[in-house]
Amino acid sequence: MIRKSFNDGWSYRRKPDAFQALLGWANEGWEAVRLPHDAMVRRERDGSDREAGHRGYFPADGYEYRKTFFVPEEYQERRVALEFEGVYRHARVYINGDLAGQCASGYSNFYVRADHLLRYGADNEVRVEARGQDDSRWYPGGGIYRGTSVIVSELLHVALDGVRVTTPAIDDELAVVAVATEIQNESAVTRTVEVVTEIVDADNEIVARDVAPVTVFPGDTATLRQRLTVAEPRRWGVEHPYLYTCRTAVTAGDERLDEESTRFGIRSLSVDARRGLRINGEPVNLRGACIHHDNGVLGAATIDRAESRRVEILKQAGFNAIRSAHNPISKALLDACDQLGMLVMDELSDVWTRSKTAHDYAGDFTASWESDVRAMVAKDVNHPSVVFYSIGNEIPEVGTAPGAVLGRRLAEKVRELDDTRFVTNAVNGLLAAGPEVLSAIAAGGAESMEKNSADGGSAGDETSEVTGDVNELMTRFREFMPTLMTSEIVTTRTAESMAYLDVAGYNYLDSRYELDRTLFPNRVIVGTETYPSDIDRNWRLVQDSSHVIGDFAWTGWDYLGEPGIGRVEYQSDPAPATSGMPDHQGHYPWLAAWCGDIDITGHRRPASYYREIVFGLRAEPYIAVHRPERHGETVRLATWWSWSDSVSSWSWGGHEGKPVRVDVYSAADEIELLIDGCSVGRAPAGEKNRFTASFTTVYEPGELVAVAYTDGHETGRTALRSAAGDVRLDVTVDRARITADDRDLAFVAITLVDTAGNLHNTADRRVAVELTGPGVLAGFGSADPRSEENFFDTVRTTFDGRALAVIRPTAPGAITVTVTADDCPPNTTRIEALEGQAGEPR
């Protein structure tokens, strides 16, 4: 089987009028692009479009892509397929003008059979249409935003996604590796072939081998099962993500008909309410991050290096698991999780049959869910990082009998396809409990809830209408949530939908953890979505409760869309104009959610370091300084996804002699704060004080030091120094050598500093990037969640002293990146793009 990248040579445009296109009157407007490509992020945002608010005010539209490619004559005796890893949305694929395939989901991997429509020995055209509407609660992107491949095979070949590797028995002496290989015979004769299967270790040494014959009738598919033993196996785990490769060859005499290469890991999984989650017999608490699929300044474009960099940074921040909220994860991200040791909860969908936005996937789910489940499992099955399949997120109908029936069908279909992982569902009690609890919240809280329950509210009563987004309701009435969520209504409404799961996913239901240990002693719980400010309390519950196996924060990485759900607004800020947006979201020009531990450029925010301390992974204290220009102001709005409005810096020019609040995060007993060696005071920290010591002092330039003490002994210190003098540009590339293919990128961090490298966070200015050599600017921007600049200008404004440029290679050679700004000496860095191995199997 030949698998090659199909990402080059495309053009795209906005979808023209269909009638004009049919008559050949619409042939203009094409722009050359290299996939993966996000068409939506290049559009101008529109603050007047109320429907676009969820998407960060980007307009939804239809797009079409086309590519011309040559097909050799000899391919007439072969099979040709095209793979699309993700097209948003309602993809239709045409080959030489005829429909070849389609996929309703914007996130499912799908294949298109091409050989019956091809012209051999000639050029062919493939055209892809993609259409999005008001169909998402976040920024979805548009067009062919994930990678594509062309796959060519002999008439007798290994089926697509046709190799499955499991490890049913493992001990220190040996592991049994079970390999199931599907062989398809599309020729007109019966064939008997041999399948050679080799297990290869990380040093490319063959550690197990088996050869077996298999006979396949014409038009039939045969599954060959082989069991191989690997002596003294190296196990895959979070700390030691060791990978093997299964090499499969199909031969007939001396002829090699097909071959496949499949990476996998040897590891065991178990979970129960007494011992929690165990991997290879060792207990693991999930330090989880919910993530969306976009890549910040790249939009939704899913280029491999962006995915691997994200996993690297999340792991450095202390996370050991990610949840792909709320759609199937990309292949590139799975590869990175396998290689780096990150556990995965892969999620199917945000909706089943009830819509959350006007034109969302609920209209397609009934017809498409089975193919979507098959695609997700086929993509995931050989990845050791995948531990959970989540069948949904905050599905309203899980609290109804029909919803429970549908959920059980979904869970059983997953188990039919892969019974080696655990099935969960991210359940929100507010939605699952239905009109009773929503009416109670709208009416004023817990007292109304209790009265409604006492009056015997019917579970099937749909007459009570509550307006507003669920996140908005949760924001406005969170003080009532713990009582409401432990009510009998929630217990009853969620019982059946929790019962068919291996692990019950709780969204904002941490108040039920202790209650449900008694009510459901065999239930295993994972916090699939929690508020960032609750991590200290929730992590204590995880540590103390064997039946609670982890916590997934909303969110680990900031994202586009759901604008401003983590914002902080002050009384002096201009009141937003009424625009029809839910109160929990920001009005234009808000762009990003601003609720991530890590911002859209990959820079860690203060919440990230706080979480790392709570996890017990960081001994040094961390200093977060509240913006002094806001000192003493009344906060008008801080949502439950907000963090403090703080920056880790002691450079606040123009605020000398003015009061400022300093928070120090630490697990130590006590923190002493010093300015230029003079003590500001001491304050308790540690878990009893929510890991935070707070001080109010006066800003004076110099050195700010936090010293941690436990039992009277110093256990760590951190210092911040004020930037002084001229502003300079610090330009740092993540890797000086990259591969010149369609999968690699270079990330160039731009920081405003002084001569000593101290951050000039209040000296923001416009910076320009200029490239020479074989590379293009794939994205350029800052983490500013309210920026009105776009990600493709060569000039952008820094935010808190930082910006990020992403360079994509176009050919081998030296790429020079020159960064300039007013009143700053220019700074140049060099990137070597080396000849790559594009097109090789993953």
From TrEMBL:
Q: Which organism is it from?
A: Frankia nepalensis
State the superkingdom. Answer: Bacteria
Residue ranges constituting the Glycoside hydrolase family 2 immunoglobulin-like beta-sandwich domain according to the UniProt record: 160-267
Official protein name in the record: DUF4982 domain-containing protein
Q: Where is the Glycoside hydrolase family domain?
A: 729-829
Q: Which PANTHER family match?
A: BETA-GALACTOSIDASE, BETA-MANNOSIDASE
Q: Name one GO molecular function term.
A: hydrolase activity, hydrolyzing O-glycosyl compounds
Q: Its family?
A: Belongs to the glycosyl hydrolase 2 family.
The alphabetized UniProt keywords are: Glycosidase, Hydrolase
